[in-house]
Design a protein that fits this description.
By secondary structure, the protein is an alpha+beta fold. 41% of the residues lie in helices and 16% in strands. It is globular and about 75 Å long.
Length: 661
């Protein structure tokens, strides 16, 4: 994988120092090779990190004289053999061919339709010299980032934003449209409009989109690779399981392609456990061990969680490791790490405010350790909840109850009650509230509004969110029949995860790869009957059945215990709580920040947070809101120190410039 960059001028040569400035800004990332290719008004660059054997000494950017095509790419392609066959690539050429050249051949054959044929994680730009056209794409889920700037005469792109700001015509101006969405949405979604970024004149190619630039005109087009309407129906239930095992094994195996070590995140649950169990078997045949990395609580953490939750997942992790075999396990307590002390590093990596602070310290800690262990590919099961292990039983039973499917409901309720250890009477009450929300009279525990109401009204943000079926507290009007289609078909669901993992991979030279996010796996799972995911009192039934013989029953059939990896984030912050409170007080005095943040909500939350808290308040919405407010405050302070402008300040500077001229 790589960081890519480039510049295109419509009617003038690209000054070589512009490209050099962009590439110098990438030098903070590890690289195996750095190259630039230029011709007249086009310059392409690549800051390469070699992960696969085919990428070693790869010429990138690459120019094909015969086809008159040049490419720079940040890509790893998983369906190589299928593409070789379709493209008619000779057998002797296949083994050493880099993925970038495979993409180039695909573009030569299929043109702008080529991304539909690619399976993998990719962002690339092709210079089509014959047609004087730039063409690029970002994979369907945005696993790799791709930013750009454009005006009538110039276009520039890069994997990260900072190098674009080194160009003299790209200004650091705050994008208030992005910020208001970020602040108004209480969930982990950053913004609805994923073409925008926190920098006003830096845009990004959304997931599942191509970009075409001809004579300074930019066109974005969505390509569809998800098969929402395909239906798979077998006569026997076992056939669904066998079909899944086949497609999932291919997804896992294609993500093991590296000349370095292979690692995986591992919790005590189904998603990461499934990935590990399929990967370890293949690696054993290659005489390689799988390294697993697991976050565990700080040594002095006192577990406050209810009995059905477990912050320390080692009993289940050990069960998986002992059962699967061929694993070298690593446990990271990260005693000196916490979300507050890591904040500045995260802001530099992500280049914008972020919301996943509860998990930030262990996510980064795992990448750091994996990089030290020379891991080239770090596997994950992050997308499993909506793909391989989807199947929310309570929602399904609420759906049956609401539609008065009494016989089916009664048949399912008894085994489900037995599996989860809750009486049917209590279950019926809980499911009734799921089916009929007006029966739920529990106290409101919603996330306090972080956005300044005046700012929100000025930008009409809540009207925009409603058009996407989203309220301040998250997605609305979703049921078990439409939720996966909604979540998978809207780019803003995918984008924030893709950005975070893309930039973490670049930072540490270790590539995060998720087999549960494979388009072939997603299309297979989306095509199955609903009953394959919830049946006989079992939620997540497909993956539980498919991992028989792969995972121990303690993990595979567990429906009563739930891991909580972020349970100790607040406990870790207690030593620096005074500093944290003082920074919140500073925030409340800052006028630049007050125009964006809801200072009344922050003051109310602060009044209950003055004393050092106990760890059992970790999921209190007010404390989480304070952390998010500090992340935004830190970002804005750095932004202004580096010469950034708000929209109003930028307009004032422009007016002064016009008068002066």
């Amino acid at each position: 994988m790589s960081a890519i960059a480039g510049i295109y001028h419509v009617n003038s040569a690209v000054p070589h120092q512009f490209g050099r400035q962009m590439m110098l800004a990438l030098r903070k990332f590890p690289a195996d090779d750095i190259q630039i290719w230029s011709k007249k008004n086009v310059l392409l660059g690549c800051h390469a990190q070699w992960i696969t054997s085919e990428s070693i000494n790869e010429q990138l950017p690459f120019y094909d004289k015969t086809r008159q095509l040049a490419i720079t790419s940040d890509a790893i392609i998983d369906n190589r053999e299928e593409l070789f066959d379709k493209l008619g690539v000779q057998r002797e050429e296949r083994k050493g061919m880099p993925d970038s050249q495979l993409i180039l051949i695909a573009y030569a054959k299929w043109g702008e339709e080529s991304p539909k044929y690619l399976v993998g994680d990719f962002a690339f730009i092709v210079w089509d010299e014959k047609n004087q056209k730039l063409f690029g794409a970002r994979d369907f889920s945005g696993s790799r980032s791709l930013y750009y700037f454009s005006d009538d005469q110039r276009f520039a792109f890069c994997t990260v934003m900072e190098p674009l700001l080194k160009l003299p015509y790209v200004n650091r101006q705050l994008n208030e449209e992005w910020l208001v969405e970020y602040l108004a949405i209480s969930t982990f979604i950053d913004a609805i409009d994923v073409s925008k970024t926190v920098i006003r004149n830096i845009l990004q190619v959304p997931p599942s989109h191509t970009i075409t630039v001809i004579e300074g005109k930019v066109k974005l087009s969505k390509f569809q690779v998800l098969s929402f309407n395909d239906k798979i129906r077998f006569k026997k239930g076992d056939e669904y399981v066998e079909g899944f095992r086949d497609v999932f094994q291919k997804a896992v195996d294609s993500r093991l392609r590296t000349f370095k070590s292979v690692g995986s995140q591992l919790s005590g649950g189904l998603d990461s456990g499934s990935v590990v169990s399929f990967a370890a078997k293949t690696l054993q045949s290659q005489n390689k061990k799988l390294h697993t990395y697991s976050s565990i609580p700080a040594a002095d953490f006192i577990d406050y969680t209810p009995g059905n939750y477990y912050p320390d997942e080692r009993p289940y992790i050990h069960a998986t490791i002992d059962y699967v075999g061929n694993i070298e396990d690593h446990y990271l307590s990260l005693e000196s790490k916490n979300p507050y002390n890591d904040m500045d590093e995260w802001l530099e990596i992500i280049e914008s405010p972020y919301k996943f602070f509860e998990n930030s310290f262990w996510m980064k800690g795992i990448f750091e350790q994996a990089a030290k262990d020379n891991v080239g590919v770090l596997l994950s099961g992050a997308r499993g909840n909506f793909t391989i292990s989807w199947g929310p039983a309570m929602e399904y039973y609420g759906h049956l109850l609401k539609r008065m499917k009494w016989f089916h409901f009664a048949r399912e309720l008894k085994p489900y009650s037995r599996n989860i250890g809750i009486g049917r009477k209590k279950l019926l009450s809980l499911i009734s509230k799921q089916a009929f929300p007006f029966l739920n009279r529990e106290d409101d525990n919603s996330f306090p509004m972080l956005v300044n109401p005046d700012f929100a009204n000025k930008m009409n943000v809540f009207e925009k969110l409603q058009r996407y079926g989203m309220g301040a507290d998250g997605l609305t009007d979703l049921n078990i029949l439409n939720q996966r289609n909604y979540l998978i078909d809207n780019e803003f669901i995918w984008n924030s995860n893709g950005i975070a993992f893309s930039k973490l991979s670049l930072q540490y030279g270790t590539l995060m790869r998720d087999p549960t996010n494979d388009i072939r796996v997603i299309n297979y799972c989306m095509s199955l009957p609903l009953e394959q995911f919830i049946n006989n009192g079992m939620d997540r039934a497909l993956i539980r059945n498919a991992t028989k013989g792969y995972l121990p029953d303690k993990v595979r059939l567990n429906q009563t215990k739930y891991g909580v990896q972020a349970a100790d984030w607040l406990h870790r912050m207690i030593p620096c709580w005074t500093d944290f409170i003082n920074e919140v007080k500073e925030l409340l005095k800052d006028k630049d920040t007050a125009q964006y943040l809801n200072t009344d909500s922050i003051r109310n939350a602060l009044s209950s947070a003055m004393e050092k808290p106990k760890g059992d308040l970790a999921f209190k919405p007010e404390l989480r809101m304070l952390m998010r407010s500090i992340i935004v405050y830190r970002f804005l302070k750095t932004f202004y120190l580096e010469g950034g402008d708000t929209n109003e300040k930028a307009m004032e500077r422009a007016q002064i410039g016009i008068i002066g001229y």
